[in-house]
Amino acid sequence: MARSRLVLLLLLVLGACAPITEPLVAPAVAPETTLGAAPRIDGGKVLLLPPDVECGEVGASGLVTPRADWTEQAMRNVTTALEQKLGARNLVVERLDEATLLPDERAAFERFAPLARTVGLSIFHFQNLPGRAGRFDWTVGETGKPLRAARKADHALLVHLRDSHATAEAMALNALSIAAAVAAGAAGVRAPVRIVTGAQVGFATLVELESGRVVWFNRLGTVAPDADLRVPASAEKSVDALLAACPI
Amino acid sequence: MRARLAIPALGLWALAGCAAPPPPPPGTASPEEAGLRMVADRAEARLKSSGRIEQRPELDAYLRGVLCRVVGPGCAELRLYLVDEPGFNATAWPNGVVELWSGTLLRLENEAQLALVLGHEAVHYEQRHTAQVWSRAQQSLGMGALLGVLAGAPELGVAMGALAVLAYSREMEREADRLALERLARAGYDPNEAPEVWEYVLAERARDPAGAPSPFLSTHPTDAERIASLRTMAATLPRTPSAEPLGRDAYRAAIAPARGRWLARELARRAFAESELVLDRLLAAEPRSGELLFFAGELRRLRDGPGDAEAALARYREAARLADAPVETWRSMGFVAKRLGREAEAREALRTYLARAGAAPDRPMIERMLAETE
Known about the structure:
The structure holds two protein chains of two kinds. By secondary structure, chain A is α/β, with parallel strands linked by helices. Helix content of chain A is about 40%, strand content about 20%. Chain A contains six helices and ten strands. In chain A, helix 3 crosses helix 4. The longest helix of chain A has 24 residues, at about 105-125. The radius of gyration of chain A is 21 Å and the shape is elongated. Chain B is mostly helical. In chain B, strand 2 and strand 3 form a beta hairpin. The chains are: A alpha/beta, B mainly alpha. The interface of A and B includes residues 56, 71 and 194 of A.
């Protein structure tokens, strides 16, 4: 039992697990979830909200310390990857830059964006609760309308990503913990293993601005060590996985 | 097994292992501190658009004035937000935000006490306590994890590390107390007001039936020892002479326009034992306040325990004789009198309410209630 758990943990550390993605789609009429591909949305205009990205360092303590410099890199990489990915599709993509908003646009943005984020986090955490019985009927109410009016856009896409990386100390301690458990195992004693890894978790949520409905949602979660938003190619991979079945 | 027994000893080593690092020189920011600032900046942007900030320019100006009086020129770096939340809480963020909950202002008696709370938070910011506690947490938990791994019980090691962090954070609290007290005295406030604030915090905690302390209490460990050392310190501090060492009138005048709304929010928490302490204290200072008597009645009406209806009615009657009683006094008086079967008094009170309330949105409901009792 202890051995098999150890192997599993080792696999986790070595990055053998693939990213978990699970796209969710709001149905046009019936309040049921369709998993997988949603009907393609062709044409129209999508607003790309500033990606909510944070990058940090996880030490031997297990605490994640946010890093401003890494976050800036990650933010740039994710934005570029999103623009590239969406640019290849048949629609107008408009990046919404917080710094250049006009006063009425700012009011619309400040009403919509925090709610879209909160609803996204709620989907992330609570969609799979048994009480929801698979229903996917999330909405941001009327808050998308002013933004639609201000920017003449049909949809808004919000990407939220948290990316952390283990320090050398944390990795060394992981190795030590495994070695200690193996040694204890050889002596016939079961010892717990403590593994601290970086992780990449997040979601993408697509909101229809007119109706306020979340029409598509996907989450991402991986502890693969090569998942690193600070590296452009890796950020591109994450964005690809996140938007794989996105209808826009 | 032998390894496990070694854990407490190793834990003690972790606790005693490191001396407090000196605060970093100003103008430098470690990557860690820059990261904490970034997160705080983002949280500040969310707070600003959250609709939770009180929109009271005059009160803001007053609070800022007190902050600057106690902090000095350093207050230029601080951004003070009065957040619309009941309960006692004040927080310093690592980016210079000082978050003050409106419920705090119901629990302070004068400007000197307010200056202490604001000064205490300003010290947390200036001394970079968040970053210090954070890096200490990294060290202690990491060291705990290492020792735990070696001893065969990693999570226990981490827990021992967490204890060390708590001890360290209490140290930061003591430092904030001490420096805030000095500034209080230097700014011409009476430093003897400082222990009063913590005394009150302790008294309110003792009343909490659930034993769940407010967020402020969980990060500001308050005990008799801390209060005693503040008293000793306050007695020996050199003080700047001042015409207004307490600033009670100015404080009351500043919060007066908002106090009724905050009291309504306070009662909505339904933590009646704590709210009763808040109201008792306010009433002890202003026994002839119609507003306070009305809310003392509301507390009893909402709590609805044995004898509460009669007690509420008595307070409404007393409030009704005072000029500053809110118009809702007569509405509540009518409701409670009706419940107690005093139909005539209920009718009289509801009629008075209608006469005074003008175009209140609940007018049709009250009119119907009156028609039913007549």
